[in-house]
Amino acid sequence: MSAAPTFAAPTTPAHCTQQSAPRLMPMPSAPVQRDVPRGTAQARRLVLATIAVIGLNLRPFMTAVGPLSGQIHAATGLDLARMSLLTLVPMLLMGVVAFAGPALQGRFGAKPLVIAALAALLAGSGARLFVESGNQLIATAAVLGLGAAIIQAVFPA
What we know:
Blueprint: H1 40-56, H2 60-63, H3 69-76, H4 80-83, H5 85-108, H6 110-127, H7 134-154
Helix pairs in contact: 5-6, 5-7, 6-7
Protein name: MFS transporter
InterPro entries: MFS_Cyanate_Porter, MFS_trans_sf
Organism: Paracoccus cavernae
């Protein structure tokens, strides 16, 4: 009787022992249909426009003081030291609210805070139409500064 043939274990070439990246399947030729709600593109444009409008309205109440300082002095009698409060008070509020922003957002949520801040900006800007004294103008700067401070603290979230 003859012995059964023996087979040597197959050897694997060195270039095949390394793991290779999985092969990708070819993409289907038909476009993939997504379930995108109707009006999503319009909603995105509206959100972007809203962000732009909010961003454009956060600074004019402070930056307008310099060019209008002569008219502000003539209309309200504010001297330069008190006129500086028109920009100092909002800046102080922005600094203070920046620290309180996360706590406020945790307690009330970003959306109600942004709405309240926009209401403060609207109220402060509207009140400036009716101010008769320098102190009233400084008070509107505080309201506007608070609104801008809240938006800056919570809007990026």
